[in-house]
Amino acid sequence: NLAQRIEEIRGALRRRRKLTFRALVPASADISLVVATFLAILELLRRGLLDIEQVSNYGEITIWSTEATAS
Question: pLDDT tens digit string along 9-61?
C-alpha cells in the first residue's frame, strides 16, 4: 500500500534525517516493495517533504527530510 509506505518512510526519516534508498529496501525485497518505495519517495518529493540526490548515473540515491523546514 502506497500510503502505508509513505508513512513508513516519513517515520524512518524522523529517526534518521538522511537515508539511502538501499537502506529503505532490504536486499531480499520483492519488486512490489521496490516500486512502492520509489513511488512513495516521488510523492513525498512532490509534497515538498523530502529532497533527494543522486551524484552519478546508477549511483546511490540519498534522501533527507525537509519537514522541519517546510511551512
Answer: 999 999 998 999 999 999 999 999 999 999 999 999 999 999 999 999 999 99
Name the DSSP class of 68. Answer: T
Predicted confidence at residue 68, as pLDDT, reads 65
**Could you count the other beta carbons within 10 Å of the beta carbon of residue 25?**
16
Q: Show the cell assigned to 7.
A: 508513512
Predicted confidence at residue 69, as pLDDT, reads 54
16 phi and psi angles, rounded to 5 deg: -135, 120
Cα–Cα distances in angstroms (integers) from residue 33 to residues 23, 37, 43, 65, in the given order = 13, 6, 15, 21
Backbone angles phi and psi of 51, in degrees to 5? -130, 160
Closest Cα to residue 24, out of 42, 12, 7?
Answer: 12
Cβ proximity of 16 and 53 under 8 Å: no
